[in-house]
Amino acid sequence: MNVWKISWQNIRSKPLYTFLSIGVLTLSITLLLGIQQIKYAFKNQIETNLGNIDLVIGAKGSPLQLVLASVLHLDNPTGNISYAEARKIIKNPRVKSAVPMSYGDNYKGYRIVGTTEAFLSIYKAELETGRYVAQSMEVVLGASVAQSLNLKLGDTFLSSHGLVENSVDVHNDELTIVGILKPTHKVIDRLIVTNLESIWEVHHHEDEHQSHEDHEHHHHHDDGAEEREADKDITSLLVKFKSARSLLNFPRKINESTNLLAALPSFELHKLYEYTSVGFKTITWIAYVILVMSGLTIFISLYKMVKERAFDLAILRTYGASNFQLIKMVLYEGLMIAFLAFVIGYFLVKIGLTVGANYMFNKSQQNLLIDLPLQELLYVAVLIFMMVILSVSLAIYPIIKMNISTILSHEK
């Protein structure tokens, strides 16, 4: 007796119950996998992009906004700060390293960050081809930027003012690509990196154009780099301390005695994660409730099949089928329903999140999704399997208590 074939025929013979069972279970699986995927991707972005950044210093405003803008590059900066004042912090004996950042321009939606070569070490980024920036108006592309825009070494482009792609406020200074970074799956993949001088020079020339509209040419270099830096601004400063003890009072001192804002990125991002976890947990519990409902649906479907086909099952027993074979038939039917629901749910999550990610990517150039770890998939699969086993265990009760002679004689 081919138990698998009989189970499949049973499923096909009751399409309404089968569709209902698969549909409800698919909804539960889709919610569970989808929320786990988003939750894992968000947590991964927080953990991997923090790198070795202990403190972010910028203009007064929201600490969370400052961290999102300077670490994850997902928000607008709180403003600019004096580079001369930032240099005092860089020279502080308690500071191991401090990486300045200046941004406010983009190319086709990708942010252009003026910084130093030390910025690459925060994300452990390495060059795949070319070299790092040696002079102003040179840029290094993150892997995602180069791939998405199909750019290569030697290409030039014009940046736009602001963090959103536009064709209205375009700068006149061409930027030349001199390097492309290896993929890191971190935020730097979505950035265009240059030096501070490039950002200052572009905006300095824009100021010249506004005040001297009759000038057709302008110079790219002045004398006295130190004098130029004295009145320049940057967006933020990424600080790493020599000792963790500095985190106890250094940020408070900055916030209380200067016009700067010091924010702890680990604290702000994990606080944000805790806030969003409330929503994640709510949707997860909804998915669990639907999972219980799907388990009841499968149980009712299997139990109804056993009761309605009691005569057929009794006939199979008279032809030599054992109780165990009949139980396997019910079990296989439940497993096939669960397998079909899991496959459909998995592909719905992949398709749905891919479409959603592509939409977000086109809008904000921020592709945050990564593949869900195998253990998370196994966790959901084991949960579904246990639910099916429980449903089958309850549904096979009539088989265990079957009285073949009474069923065949139609006696009650």
UniProtKB/TrEMBL annotation:
Pfam families: FtsX (PF02687), MacB_PCD (PF12704). Keywords: Cell membrane, Membrane, Transmembrane, Transmembrane helix. It is found in: Cell membrane. Residues 286-404 form the ABC3 transporter permease C-terminal domain. The keyword Ligase does not apply. The chain crosses the membrane at residues 16-35, 285-303, 335-357, 377-400. Residues 18-199 form the MacB-like periplasmic core domain. Residues 205-228 are annotated as: Disordered. It is a multi-pass membrane protein. PANTHER family: ABC TRANSPORTER PERMEASE, ABC TRANSPORTER, MEMBRANE PROTEIN. This is ABC transporter permease. It comes from Winogradskyella rapida.
